[in-house]
Amino acid sequence: MKRLTLAILAGLALPALTTVNATEFEQGRVINSANEFSIVPHRERIGPENRMLTDRLDNLLPALMAEQNLDMWLVINREKAEDPVYFTLVPQPTFAARRTTMLVFHRQADGTVTRETVNTYPLGGPYDSAWQGGSLDEQWQALGELIVAKNPQRIGINVSRDWSVADGLTQGMHQRLLEVLPNEFQNQLVSAEDLVVRWIEQRTEQELAVYPHIVGIARGVISEAFSSRVITPGVTTTDEVAWYIRERFSELELPIWFMPYVTFQRPGITCEEDTPFCGESGVIQRGDVLHTDVGICYFKLCTDTQEMAYVLRADEDDIPESFKSALATGNRWQDILTGEFVTGRTGNEILAATQQKARAEGILSSTYTHPLGFFGHAPGPTIGMWDNQGPTPIQGDWPLYANTGYAIEGYVKQAIPEWDNQLVQVKLEQSAYFDGSRVIYLAGRQTQWHLVR
């Protein structure tokens, strides 16, 4: 499909492709290696993670339950069928919901929230044990009695049609819950989906203190991979670079949440305006443009990062200016997007405003930005999808809140004279947070190409 056809379908006349001069963009940062950052051993991570959890339970959860007008929240799951939100609520080290695990949160008249478990195996702090021991039937009966004794008016349970992260209560356990509740309490069960989304998307001061360090490590490993320490032009393959990234994180004892991948672009590879993703795999050659996508999790917080590199030719000391201009266009697109972040505005509204301004400036772009935090693809306002540049129902209608994290993700395409005006696709993604007034990149952003010599 040609560009003119796309414009007709959109009902708009697009301007000619722009050229943005390379300049110094705000929050640009060069990170050379993950060795610039300390990595806490597994055993020593437990204390900080549990302090962050207790802070969330003490200070954030009461405010969110009041915000959503819930008197009680039940998180009920069992081993091998854990609720997605469960691991964000329990202390470390926890690897499973042993047998059947029940968490009961009850909002008091003074606004505080009690935290109790109805479990065969008590979790310990920061939870009190309301019951332990006995048969499974006795456990369910104890839960029912506890709920009746507290007499909540609105009881949130994790059932949702639209948010997978809020749909953790299985049908079988839902049925068992109904069996132990009197009819009047059954009628007070409501979906806790909004509470779950708010709980997962909201970042705290303690988390924001450590988050830049985590993102810096991810960016540092990318910098290592996109260097002559790893790449020998004409020999090294994109798959070998991807495996270097994976094994480097393994060496650092940091889990990835998806397999890293690396691709190259070069003259002759098809990259039209409507090609979703341009790039191929194979042996890396001089003159190639490289791209990678990387995500790790550390202290329960996840990153999502995409950066670009150029493999210098033998007679080059620097990347040609046309490529610098293409990256500058990508940085300008980022600025347009993040400039549209306004508290209360929906993801769909941010997307539409970004597209309008990018078109007006002649930038050929695609925006598919998503929330980030306890999950790499977290709940919250979806701001476009790579396969849908129109409104996204439900997730795109979610409003923007302060102190929430995002992967600022998308691409721009720009013609390169050195490639006979073939388009180069600059795919960018940086972990950031919105403080209520502006977007702050957690470990800076890429404003300079990685160069492989």
TrEMBL record:
Coiled coil: none annotated. Residues 1-22 form the signal peptide. The keyword Nuclease does not apply. Keywords: Aminopeptidase, Hydrolase, Protease, Signal. One of its GO terms (molecular function) is aminopeptidase activity. InterPro entries: Creatinase/aminopeptidase-like, Pept_M24. Residues 217-380 form the Peptidase M24 domain. Pfam families: Peptidase_M24 (PF00557). This is Xaa-Pro aminopeptidase. It comes from Aliidiomarina haloalkalitolerans.
